[in-house]
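User: tokens in, sequence out, please.
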């Protein structure tokens, strides 16, 4: 019998709950965390690279932004 889990879980959370319905040894859990971190870091880097290319960013634009003072809102 398959357990049905109701929302508020996301589809990813539901899949992970079904897949890992048992305890992992600590070293395997650490490996899984590193794998997930790498997955999301790679997606973020790819997205940033796409924006860099699409918006035609360059070192001068980045340097200009680094010199910009941003007002803090209260």
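Assistant: Sequence out:
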């Amino acid at each position: 019998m398959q357990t049905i889990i109701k929302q508020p879980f996301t589809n990813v959370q539901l899949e992970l709950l079904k897949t890992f319905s048992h305890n992992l040894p600590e070293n395997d859990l650490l490996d899984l965390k590193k794998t997930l971190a790498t997955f999301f870091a790679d997606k973020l880097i790819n997205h940033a690279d796409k924006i860099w290319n699409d918006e035609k960013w360059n070192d001068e634009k980045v340097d200009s932004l680094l010199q910009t003072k941003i007002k803090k809102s209260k």
